[in-house]
Amino acid sequence: MLNSTSAPLDYYARLGIMTDPKEHAHLFEKLPAEVSALRDVVQGLLVHVFWAERYGLKLSEARKQEVQLRTVSRKLKRILELDDRPLTVARPLHKRLVGNCRDFSVMLCAMLRHQGVPARARCGFGAYFTPRRYDDHWVCEYWRGDQGYWVMVDAELDAFQYERLKIQFDPLTVPSEQFVTGGRAWLMCRNGEAEPDQFSIPGGMSGMMFVQGNLIRDFLALNKIEILPWDGWGLMAEDDESAAACEVELMDHIARLTIGGNETFAQIRALYENDSRLRMPSEWQP
Questions:
Q1: What is the mean predicted confidence (pLDDT) over 225-232?
Q2: Would you say 126 and 135 are in contact if contact means Cβ atoms under 8 Å apart?
Q3: What percentage of residues in the chain have a pLDDT greater than 70?
Q4: How far apart are CA 173 and CA 175, in angstroms?
């Protein structure tokens, strides 16, 4: 029987296939230990593809394609191609790797895991971008051993975004009502606490199938498979709502597991290993 506390913490303190820096691991050796300082390092390395122009940075189509880099090792390789100084040196905007919220979260997660800190990326929806809506978003969650609970960090929210969005909380301790995981979003819709169309990408997809996609992506992230927001297979690739309706009970089950804390860790791992619709296909390469 897996210990409900030590097993998940040991698991999330180790690197995964997406977060392993591989041959670039030495770049992480002299990073600070404080979460706030690591967040600052991440912000000095990345620029969000959708915020770039608001910073005054015009991106070429080729640079925008950097958001397709899935793994931290490939990201680090490109970061060094742009600027080969130590990671602790903040790059000028035009020399930062182009990414999105998932990339900020996964990079911070990788740095924390490298230091032996239990950490995981979470996929869901932020309530702080658009009034009365929940926007597609990712954060990083790490274990506060001195307090005995998980803390969410939004590594993307720098001083510029903080002011523009009029954020009213500390991005180093994101309140649970401000970031809704995919599982919580699913259950909110199922229980009538929110309308599916409130969950969306601004100007893009919304609705229950979109929520389902983020539910499964969050489930995968809890299995250390932090895929790109537009990746998909199995139950994520289903775009027929009538066909997907038969999976509602399974989605309810997954949602409850993802919000269950350390106590549901063993069930999350077992479900991933035993349901091929959720597992990363053997032919799919990160």
A1: 93
A2: yes
A3: 95
A4: 6
Instruction: Answer whether 30's CB lies under 8 Å from 89's CB.
Output: no
Q: How does pLDDT run across 137-168, given as a tens digit for each residue?
A: 999 999 998 889 999 999 999 999 999 999 99
Type of residue numbered 23: E
Residue 175 pLDDT greater than 60, yes or no: yes
Name which of 25, 254, 15, 34 is nearest 153 in CA terms: 34
CA distance 263 to 130: 33
pLDDT tens column, 238-272: 555 544 556 899 999 999 999 999 999 999 999 99
Which own/partner contact pairs does 265-271 have at CB distance under 8 Å and 24+ positions apart?
Answer: 265/2, 265/4, 265/7, 265/8, 265/11, 266/1, 266/2, 266/4, 266/7, 268/219, 268/222, 268/223, 269/11, 269/223, 271/219
Q: Residue 14: what pLDDT?
A: 98
Q: Please report, for the chain, the start and end positions of each structural domain, with discontinuous segments joined by +.
A: 6-274
Q: Tokens standing for 28?
A: 């992480």
E strands in the chain: 46-48, 97-99, 119-126, 134-144, 149-153, 179-181, 199-200
d(CA 253, CA 260): 11
Most distant CA atoms of the chain, gap in Å: 54
